[in-house]
Specification:
The protein is α/β, with parallel strands linked by helices and 300 residues long. The chain has 10 helices and 18 strands. Helices cover 26% and strands 30% of the residues. Strand 11 and strand 12 form a beta hairpin.
Amino acid sequence: MIEITFLGTGSAIPTKRRNTSAIWLRHEGESFLWDCGEGTQRQLMSSKINFMKIDRIFITHWHADHWAGIIGLMQTMNLEGRKKPLYIYGPEAERFVGDLLDLDYWGPGFKVISKKVPYEGSEETIVYDSDNFYISSIPVKHTVPAVGYCIREKDVVNVDIKKANKLFGLKQGPLVGKLKTNGEVMIKGKKVTMKDVGVVKRGVKVVYSGDTKKCENLVKLSKNADLLIHDSTFLENRDDRMHTGVKDAVDTAKKAKVKSLILTHFSRRYTDVKPLEKEAKKMFKNTKLAEDFMELKVKV
C-alpha cells in the first residue's frame, strides 16, 4: 500500500486555495516528497505528516515552483536537530543542490546528498531501489530538463495453499516457509516447486508526470499503473505552453491503460476547476482533481 497526501496542487504562483507543487508519499515506513514548491513545510506542518522523517526528495525539474520549498525545509530540519542524511534527486542535481548549500554561511548539520537523474533519451531508470519497492524516472517534455517518477511495489510470489493442498497435500506450516525460501521442497518423495503452486501478487504502481507536454515516454512509464498523477495546467491543450491540457492528460492515461487518473498543477486562472473535471470525466470516468491536503491510499 502507498499512502499519498497532496501538499500543493497549483502551478507557478500559490493561491489561497492551492500551494505550489508537492506530493508526500509513504511506503512501509519510508517517507518521500515528489517536488517541494515554496511553502511546502507550512503545508507539512498543517498536516499529520512528520517532516523530520522525510529522507528523500525527488525533484521533477528545477523551476522554482517545484523546488523552492527545499531551502526552508532544510533550515527547519537543521534547527530541529536532524542528523541523518537528506537525499535530493533530480536532473542536474549536483549543480542545483550545491547552489542551495552555498546560500548559507555554515550549511546544515546533516549531510545533503545529491543524486542525478537522467533527463535525456527514452529509458526508464531505477533511481532508488529498496527490498520491496523501487522508484524510477523517465525524461519528459518541458522547457528545461525534466522527468516523471514512478513508485512500484515489487511483485510477490506466494504459495496457493488450496492448490498446494489439493495437488500435493501441502498444508500451512514450516514446509510452506521452506518452499518460499528455497523455491522447492520434497513432499512424500516428490519435489514441489514454486512454479507448481505459486501465485503472483502484483505490486502497486503510482506515476507522477511533473510538468510536461504530452509524450510517449510518460505513456511508457505509466503502463498499467494503478494511479497516474498528471499535470493539467489548462483546460485546453495549448501549443504555446509546455504543459498539458485535460485532453492530452486523459489520452496519456488511456494509452497507458491506467486504472485511475488524478489531475493536478492547475493554473491560478481556474478559481473553479469543475469545468476541467467535467471535461476529463467525459473521456475517462475514473478521474479526480487534486486538492491541497487530499489524502488517499493506493493498494491492489
